[in-house]
Specification:
Layout lengths: L1 H17 L1 H29 L12 E6 L10 E2 H10 L3 E17 L2 E10 L3 H5 L5 E2 L11 E4 L1 H6 L3 H4 L3 E4 L2 E8 L15 E4 L10 E9 L5 H18 L1 H4 L12 E5 L5 H39 L1 H9 L4 H38 L1 H4 L8 H26 L4 H6 L5 H5 L2 H36 L7 E7 L7 H14 L6 E7 L8 E7 L9 E9 L1 H6 L6 E2 L13 E5 H8 L7 E4 L4 E8 L14 E5 L7 E8 L7 H12 L3 E7 H8 L1 H35 L1 H9 L4 H37 L8 H27 L3 H5 L3
Parallel strand pairs: 4-9, 6-8, 15-20, 17-19
Antiparallel strand pairs: 1-10, 1-11, 2-10, 3-4, 3-7, 3-10, 5-8, 6-9, 7-8, 12-21, 12-22, 13-21, 14-15, 14-18, 16-19, 17-20, 18-19
């Protein structure tokens, strides 16, 4: 048996060597199809399924949540709830609480830099099962100073991992001792929230209403997520009974327990994870269509190859070879080629998987584990082998179906030879064109959606605006200093040359802002009439910087001080939904019981993501509401990117060495918030272009095959007076019908896929006639390109040569 397999493999290698062109196209098709799939699934696997680098057995790690008043199950924990669950839950080996919301200046050896600081419980690194790169990963005090653990990246900046141990690290007025360094690629638990310093939790509030901690846990061996969820529900029910004031109530039911829940660990926060999952389904669908196009391309090539070898196969059958033997040889050739294509696809995937995230999240991509997993490798090779087997059967059947006498006569012009396999070949090309049509139409839909959503909400108002993310001093309970610094910034920054005006906001458009619970005065007093809205705290200059004019009423001024009547400005969506045509003078009551008078209405915008419709938004005046973290928004008279150094220097001088974690343009910030959307467009578009290239090969194959099969017919027609136009029409129609059929099927498929596009982007436009016309034009160009070589060959056929073929 082994010798027979070796003989078949040697024969397959010789056959491939003789048909280098066909083999090269087949290998390229499968490499692109399988490689694109492996790369996409590898990136999604790294984002959604794998833990950060250095985490032991991340499949046992889980994120824990408590429900919010809004009804969302994915809220933060209070420290007392964390302690209660840790003391009661038997399904976890360890639980840890994390507060990574602080970005501040840290100083090591008098050198300062901005860093995200995570406050964690002592068992944080134990829950991760992490081995230190240097020192230890426990936070017991060192020589009467509190301990700090730093990232390998920060350690390298101060003399290397070993040299960092024992050094003093200052944060504000507190000095810590560096006792350990994390593994090199570990920068925290979530993409986009890269940490460099881990310190013990400073303030362990005893209030169960103070919910600001994320919680992770490691499941005991053999414990399932469902079992852990059941135990957490029992704990939350018990706490709801013991602490009804803080552990009960939602916007839908005032008596509902604040339930605890559990999910498998993800590198992304829950909102981004849901968005990425949806994007992943779309991109995975596109890459699957590309793989299907590649497989159909393989089938078409194998069919042409087997039909071209009909005479060879007939001679072998005449010499005693059985049909089963020949079919086995053809299948082995197809599978061997397909496996080689799959192996090349893995190489393509390794290269592509590193590039995809780096295009859209450069800083975060470095910490993702983008190595192809064993299951991805096995699946890629398996799909390639299965494609070779599945799409090699029909060509093997067709190639060995000719009677030996017919094949040996080489009747190139016979009707049977003309039709044999042509219907299957046309079906294959129709499928390829349908796939590429779907991908191209969906790409156009996504591009139009991005442009329409941005233009509708922001337009030209984002031009020439710089954004400085700033953490004001006094964030730990004393706002007086922070308000003074913010006031000085707004006075001094506009005096910098090139600055037109400056304002302050706690939230940026398309950022994930704060949420607040409000009651509409005059409605029934039960909890069901409470509403949750987005909240932004802004200074009066903010609206001027973004060129937002009031639709009704007025905007804030500095007369709206802390001693004045509490006021708010609402957006048009909120005003019209809850107050009708006249919202001015109406009152809303916030969660603290403060009565807020509406003094103005402004246009609606997005303060979360493009995946959601615009959310009703409430604007607080910064003079009456203090948030220590926010953004200085500066409109400039020139390109804001050219003023970064000037703005940083001037802002630091005005604010007294403020922590400025980042300075960029508003356009860049919005572009980054659309990273997954742009990633979707790029990947789906790339799949569409590759599928269109494969369609070109398929159309070329049909026309080339038509010329080969109809050489005698072309010669006869030429002898009877047919001109170049009639001959060209004969060949082009051979491919025109499959192209038209593929366009129609692909358009119907794209109309169905457009529903997914509307889920991805709110307000996505429908597929219009312009997009259909553009796609039809692309397919027409495919036919023209694919027709050039076969048509030249057909027009060169001389009647005497063709008639001698008999």
């Amino acid at each position: 048996m082994d010798s027979l397999i070796h003989a078949n493999l040697r024969h397959a290698l010789r056959a491939v060597t003789r048909a280098k062109g066909t083999a090269a196209v087949l290998l390229t098709s499968l490499a692109l199809g399988t490689g694109a799939n492996a790369a996409v699934f590898g990136v999604l696997d790294a984002l959604l399924l794998r833990g950060p680098a250095g985490v032991e057995n991340p499949r046992r790690l889980a994120n824990l949540y408590t429900s919010e008043f809004s009804g969302s199950p994915y809220g933060a924990w209070s420290y007392p709830d964390y302690e209660s669950a840790r003391g009661s839950a038997s399904v976890f080996t360890s639980m840890a609480a994390i507060d990574d919301g602080t970005v501040d200046n840290v100083r090591i050896d008098e050198a300062g830099r901005a860093a995200r600081i995570a406050q964690v419980t002592d068992d944080f690194f134990a829950a991760l099962g992490m081995t230190p790169h240097a020192g230890r990963l426990t936070l017991q005090p060192d020589r009467e100073r509190p301990a700090a653990i730093v990232s390998a990246q920060l350690a390298e900046e101060v003399g290397g991992s070993a040299g960092a141990l024992g050094k003093a690290l200052a944060i504000g007025d507190t000095t810590y001792s560096i006792v350990g360094v994390t593994p090199p690629r570990f920068r925290g638990l979530q993409v986009g929230r890269e940490c460099d310093v881990w310190i013990p939790i400073a303030s362990r509030s005893r209030s169960r209403g103070d919910r600001r901690f994320a919680v992770i846990a490691r499941l005991r061996s053999g414990v399932t997520i469902d079992r852990a969820a059941t135990e957490l529900r029992r704990i939350s029910d018990r706490l709801a009974g013991e602490h009804a004031r803080t552990n009960r109530g939602s916007i839908h039911d005032p008596n509902a327990p604040r339930l605890m829940s559990i999910e498998r660990f993800s590198n992304l926060d829950r909102g981004a994870s849901a968005q990425t999952t949806l994007v992943g389904f779309v991109v995975a669908g596109a890459s699957t269509l590309l793989l299907a196009a590649a497989c159909f391309n393989v089938g078409g090539l194998l069919l042409s190859s087997s039909l071209a070898r009909a005479r060879e196969l007939a001679i072998k059958m005449a010499l005693g070879a059985t049909r089963a033997t020949l079919m086995r040889q053809l299948l082995i050739e197809a599978i061997a080629l397909s496996l080689a294509g799959g192996a090349l696809g893995l190489l393509f995937a390794v290269w592509t998987a590193e590039i995809i995230p780096a295009l859209f999240m450069t800083e975060e991509a470095a910490r993702l584990d983008l190595r192809l997993s064993a299951r991805t490798i096995a699946l890629t090779i398996g799909v390639a082998g299965a494609a070779g087997a599945a799409f090699g059967i029909a060509p093997a059947l067709y190639g060995t179906a000719s009677p030996a006498v017919t094949a040996l006569r080489a009747d190139a012009g016979g009707v049977g030879e003309r039709e044999r396999g042509s219907r299957l070949r046309r079906l294959i090309v129709t499928s390829q064109i349908a796939f590429s049509t779907m991908l191209l139409l969906v790409t156009g839909l996504l591009i139009a959606s991005l442009g329409r959503a941005l233009e509708g909400d922001l337009g030209a108002t984002i031009k020439q605006i710089a954004v400085l993310s700033i953490d004001l001093p006094g964030q730990f309970g004393d706002p007086t200093r922070g308000i003074a610094v913010r006031t000085k910034l707004l006075q001094d920054v506009p005096k910098i040359g090139g600055v037109v005006r400056a304002g302050w906001s706690s939230t940026l458009p398309l950022g994930r802002g704060n949420r607040g619970v409000f009651e509409i005065e005059g409605s029934a007093a039960d909890v069901r009439d409470k509403q949750e809205f987005d909240v932004a705290v802004v200074t009066p200059e903010y609206f001027d910087v973004l060129a937002m004019q009031p639709i009704e009423g007025r905007l804030f001024d500095y007369g709206d001080s802390a001693l004045a009547t509490p006021v708010i400005v609402v957006d048009e969506l909120l005003a019209r939904r809850h107050f009708g045509e006249h919202a001015i003078g109406s009152v809303m009551i916030d969660a603290r019981g403060t009565r807020l008078e509406i003094v103005g209405v402004v246009p609606s915008g997005r303060y979360r993501t493009l995946q959601q419709p615009p959310q009703p938004t409430v604007y607080y005046p910064a003079m009456q509401e203090y948030l220590w973290r926010g953004h200085l928004i500066v409109r400039t008279s020139t390109d804001p990117a050219l003023m970064f150094d000037v703005l940083r220097t001037g802002t630091s001088k005005a604010g007294g060495s403020l922590s400025i974690p980042r300075i960029t343009t508003l356009e860049t910030r919005i572009s980054e918030s659309l990273a997954l959307d742009r990633l979707t467009v790029t990947l789906v578009g790339a799949c569409g272009v590759i599928a269109l290239a494969m369609s070109t090969l398929g159309v070329y194959g049909i026309m080339n095959d038509a010329v080969r099969r109809r050489t005698r017919e072309i010669g006869v027609r030429a002898a009877l007076g047919a001109g170049p136009f009639q001959i060209a029409r004969l060949i082009v129609l051979e491919a025109a019908y499959p192209a038209a059929g593929g366009l129609a099927i692909g358009a119907l498929g794209a109309l169905a896929a457009a529903r997914v596009g509307r889920l991805l982007l709110h307000g996505a436009p429908p597929i219009d006639l312009t997009a259909l016309a553009a796609t039809a034009g692309a397919l027409f160009a495919v036919i023209i390109v694919a027709a050039i070589v076969p048509l030249q060959r057909a027009l060169r056929v001389h009647p005497s040569i063709a008639l001698r073929a008999e």
